[in-house]
Amino acid sequence: MEGISIFRDREEAGLLLAERLLTYHADPAAIVVALPRGGVIVGYAISQALRVPLEVFLSRKLGAPDNPEYAIGAVTETGSIYWNPEALRIMGGLSTAGRYFDETVQAQRDEIRRRQELYRNGRPLPDLKNRTVLLVDDGVATGATFRAAVDALRKLHVQRLVAAIPVGPKETLREIAAATDELVALVVPEPFAAVGNHYANFQQVSDDEVVRCLAQAHAT
User: What does the pLDDT look like over 163-187, one tens digit per residue?
Assistant: First the structure.
């Protein structure tokens, strides 16, 4: 779908995605795996609509030295690191800021451990081997955290990997489509500015909201 579209909030985006994912309704092999924090709200709506379990996967952005909001890569809870090749090319490679990258990776790994304890009470990621994983976020820009999660989940030998994304730029979504078995994207705006521009309500999601969604999902 081309053009600008505004979702009321993350829950509405999730319900719209669920309509495109009905083939996985009550599928015993399927599981929604959401990237926190915002993706968990989207993923919870999908999980409830499709009657499939919800889990989180932790993937943390690695920001550029001069612009921490710009993702040049990401590190995941399984330890893998994804580097955005275009961003590294522009920066001149990892060697130009080796110490910065080492410190940034360590800081994000510390944050991942904090969230593992908070979101799962320290329990490990469940076995996803031979599962159909619906990987969800509330949108992508560079796609670094999403691509890192894709690569990490592939190494866990999932049977099928479906990307479910409300909004993102064409080139990023093209790359994600090539790396997954199926891409469901609702809006592909041209030009693309920012994920939040396509939501009427894009308030920051708290840890408490993530924990509450996970607890409610596991109770049903």
Answer: 999 999 999 999 999 999 999 999 9
Residue 177: Cβ within 10 Å count: 14
Q: Is the dihedral of CA 11, 47, 145, 215 positive or negative?
A: positive
Q: Give the 3-state secondary structure of residue 60.
A: strand
* DSSP codes of every residue in 30-54: EEEEE-TTHHHHHHHHHHHHHT--E
Residues of the chain with pLDDT under 70: 1-5, 87-98
Domain count, the chain: 2
Q: Say which residue the tokens 């949108």 belong to.
A: 139
The pTM is what? 0.93
Domain extent for 84: 61-118
Question: Are residues 47 and 76 located together in one domain of the fold?
Answer: no
CA 123/CA 86 separation, integer angstroms: 36
Residue 31 lies inside a defined structural domain of this protein:
yes
Q: Are residues 102 and 202 in the same domain?
A: no
Determine, yes or no, domain membership for 1.
Answer: no
